[in-house]
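Folded chain entry —
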Amino acid sequence: MINKEIKELILKEISEKGIEFINELNEFVYKNSPFKNNPVSYVRWVDIKEVQSNDYNPNIVASNELKLLAVSIKHDGFTQPIVCIKDKSHYIIVDGFHRYYVNKVYSEINKANNGKVPIVILNKNINDRMASTVRHNRARGKHTVNGMGQLIYKMIGNGWDDVKICNELGLEPDELIRLKNISGVAKLFEGKEYSNAWEESYSIKKRMEKK
């Protein structure tokens, strides 16, 4: 239990320093928490101007769902933080663009949160970052085929092989092959290793079994 003196000290610091102290306090608790391997253990509030969208998210939300999200945040507040990575002076969104967008365009919501949004931070490189975005999207059952195809094209260009992509994105080999065809990746390998999609799918499955 937190004793009265500590509570009074915390309230005094919040009154004087505001969100800056709240973020410092959250960071202190996070660093000393047995759950610090979970990013959600350290939610910080940052100015929305410091947050930027990414350029690869294949997820889209219908306008009606976006309006419903605005109503949800208006009435219930933020129940989930925006997932980001730190990039120099900005935070780049991994998941939660629509929560960010609603706070940005709905002045009433933005004002209620003093122009700030709650975020958690992941430490990931670009391919791992894109994989995190896809996992978040697929877990909700929402992603676009064309967007996924282009994302996979980038991942292959950044050095990930078929097995790693399937494992990291939760794809079946057949799904990957279809997405590679959509994105044009398959044309890069024409006549090289596989004569048809069935052979390629079989080869990926066998390599996945070995890992």
Remarks:
- Residues 13 and 133 are 36 Å apart (CA to CA).
- Strands lie at 44-47, 51-52, 82-87, 90-95, 116-121.
